[in-house]
Specification:
Uridine Diphospho-n-acetylenolpyruvylglucosamine Reductase, domain 3, Enolase-like, domain 1, 19% strand, alpha+beta, five-stranded antiparallel sheet
Length: 356
């Protein structure tokens, strides 16, 4: 049986209490909400906090509030998000992403904030302590558990995925982040010094070790979704979104590729040769699990203002798939995963065009 290392525990009563404890604890403090990622990592000695700060009991973080859009607290569970009526109706990509995480039991425990801050993953890192010790660890292994023991001839730590690389290539495996970025979400970060609100894509850095840009003394408290047009606006002109996920098993597994798409279309039609294709007014497409952060595809100008024909979809999918550069850090073959990226982009765009 794997056991967690010794640690001190503090049950925070408020956001102010939690961030004060974070500031006092320094680099050795970590937040605990659902614990579905942190606790297994502690047992494998991948994360070894000296102080664990429980935030699940903070009521403010467990609310979904209406406004101009939708504000979701960081401790709202993935099950609650996947089943929420307004999320399913207006932000389908998020509902699908949250509902695809792990198993029902884990979704009942796991939280939105935890999934957004999910540790990056790698075939050479997500193993037990003894397995990693046998290969000499890697640059992502914490020093406190014997990590950084394996070094290249020049004395630097090794990334087993790319042994000559100066950086870690562990991959971002969060499901909800690509969906939320595609939907244009923002996130609130709070520390003892105050709070700030940034576009969600700015929370991530393309580095397997330093994958979050937030400071160690900051915590995610809420995610803000922009308003979607409903009511009198024609159904064809409302925001449409979806989320496609590739994994070996239909449940439980982390993504080895994900595609999140948000579109606003004008007009109707099936896009085929015999029908009139709708025109793309707005588009945001995000690839997940292909880098150390979610990748916001920049080529959406190819779509905007044009009829969404089969030819356009295929051309855009070819351009978007160039951002998928699989490495030997997750499941499946490298070349096949890159081909699937193109197919998934085509599938997700076709789904939204046809209003399925």
């Amino acid at each position: 049986m794997m056991r967690a290392p010794r640690f001190r525990y503090h049950a925070a009563k408020s956001v102010r209490d939690a961030v004060a404890a974070l500031a006092d604890g320094g680099p050795g403090a970590m937040l605990l909400a659902g614990g579905t990622d942190l606790v297994p990592n502690m047992k494998r000695r991948q994360q070894v906090p000296e102080l664990v700060i429980g935030i699940r009991g903070i009521g403010k973080l467990r609310r979904i509030a209406n406004g101009e859009g939708l504000t979701i607290g960081s401790c709202v569970t993935l099950s609650e998000i996947a089943g929420h009526r307004k999320v399913r109706r207006g932000y389908a990509a998020l509902a699908k992403a949250a509902g695809s995480v792990a198993t029902p039991h884990l979704r009942n425990m796991g939280t939105l904030g935890g999934n957004l801050c999910l540790d990056t993953r790698c075939n050479y890192y997500n193993q037990n302590h003894e397995w990693r010790q046998a290969i000499g660890f890697c640059m992502k292994a914490p020093k406190s558990t014997g990590g950084h023991a394996c070094a290249s001839p020049d004395g630097t730590s090794i990334c087993w995925v790319a042994t000559s690389s100066p950086r870690c290539w562990a991959v971002s495996s969060t499901d909800t982040a690509p969906a939320l970025i595609a939907l244009g979400a923002e996130v609130t970060l709070v520390s003892a010094e105050g709070e700030r609100r940034i576009p969600l894509e700015q929370l991530y850095a393309n580095d397997g070790m330093a994958y979050l840009t937030k400071r160690p003394d900051e915590m995610v408290t809420a995610v803000h979704l922009p308003a979607v047009s409903e009511g009198r606006r024609a159904k064809s002109e409302r925001l449409r979104s979806t989320y496609w996920k590739l994994r070996r098993r239909g449940s439980f597994d982390f993504p080895v590729l994900s595609v999140a798409v948000s579109l606003r279309l004008a007009g109707q039609g099936d896009g085929g040769t015999g029908g009139r294709a709708p025109v793309v007014e707005e588009a945001r497409i995000v690839l997940g699990a292909v880098a150390s952060r979610p990748v916001l595809v920049p080529e959406t100008a190819m779509l905007v203002g044009k009829p969404m024909t089969d030819d356009l979809i295929r051309a855009f999918a070819e351009a978007a798939s160039q951002h998928a550069r699989p490495m030997d850090n997750t499941d499946f073959g490298l070349g096949w995963r890159k081909k699937v990226a193109k197919s998934y982009v085509v599938g997700a765009l076709t789904e939204l065009r046809e209003g399925r």
